[in-house]
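Problem: given the chain below (193 residues), write out its structure.
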Amino acid sequence: MRLWNLSSRRLAGVAALACAAALIPACATAVTTSPAQPAAGTPQCATSGLVVWMNTNGSAYAGGVYYTLKFTNLSGHACTLYGYPGVWAVTLSGRTIGSPTIGGTIKPTTVTLADGATATATLQITDPANFGTTCFLPGQTPAPGRPGKLPTAAGLRVYPPNPRSFSYKVIPFPFSACDRTGPIWLHTTPVRK
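Solution.
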């Protein structure tokens, strides 16, 4: 299953790089979420009313792993989610690592969550080693007799899809990362029931 279109991936990557320097949190959400939410009587889910978590038993494939992101509504009332969640790898101190996710070509639909209900999205983490020596730590690139060393992320900063909010939750989860902007190695699908 292919989650993104290569040409739109490149265009979105350029957009992400252009805005990353000035408005890092805003750009992560702006690039990865839909710009407009359909009108509805049910309010959008506020990040403060969501528990954001992940099933860490991923589904591996040659070159990466798929995980399921989960958004559980604990706000006390029904709310809606629409679009692609924004995801960025972070260090233990909270510094972002590399580039944020780029949304794909799958058309989002509005998901209405009753209190206590959960929506999901698929997160694809591509192995940073697929980008050649680009993602390895300085002086740590693979060589004969030396496997090389990639930076380790301490977790994921997840922006629920809400174009009016730049707030996020952090999921602790150590994994190999790419500490360079440019390579897009994190991808998501839109939220769904």
